Amino acid sequence: MENITYTLKDYKSDLKPIWCPGCGDFGVLSALMQALVKLQIPPHKLAILSGIGCSSRLPGYIKTYGFNGVHGRAIPLATGVKLSNPDIKVVAVGGDGDGFSIGAGHIPHAARKNIDMTYIVMNNSIYGLTKGQASPTTPIGEQTKTTFYGNMEEPINPIRMMIAYKASFVARTFSGDPKNATEIISQAIQHKGFSFVEVLSPCPTFRGVEQFKLIREKIEYLPETYQPTDEVKAFDIANDNDFIRLGVIYRQDRPIYTEIMKKMKEVSQKLGKPDIMDLLAQFEP
Q1: pTM score, two decimals?
Q2: How far is Cα 233 from Cα 231, in angstroms, rounded to an integer?
């Protein structure tokens, strides 16, 4: 069989991104495609699923299997694809509003089951598609279309939340650093289990062009000596408000959901129990 080397051209669709000028999502799209080139994942072996929002347009810009679903349902879509075809690499993408508001109830279950997928959240701390309302990650005191006197609600901490949910890979990167973003996304896709990547992806239209500068001023990169297997240390990093640490913050190796299902099937057969697929076949028309 002839070896094929995939290039950016092989992953780029004919659709032109329509994000606002300066949007951080351009950097995320570029980093994801660079990661695919680095990993040499065949386009037909990858599925990208999303919900609704500016960032959720991303599946249309990459020439792989993809689906732009409804608001907050990227995780259920990705779960369905992975369980129906475990050989497919699955990536779910979305924004902070899509993931941590209407879609928040799906995340803990995919994380604790350790579904083998990558979930990339482009966090801009605003609802961009609907023109600038406060999102679950909007900082306290920030004025938006829906918080004229300043946001009064404590924002969600995505990293702390994902560690608590027992996600087996938790990382943070920045769309303004394409090299770091490419590396982190590559590691997340290679990870066996539920991998979560928060990408700080500023919205210059509704939060201002200075967001890139403000983020860069607080960035610190995790050193090579850092051990991401320490859950307590990972929580300390997640709780640090003085710095924004970029890198793989927490990682744990444990069985993925499809492996557990396979073992349960083997045990069931040894005990002489009926196969679940035989039971389901009884309901076919």
Answers
A1: 0.93
A2: 5
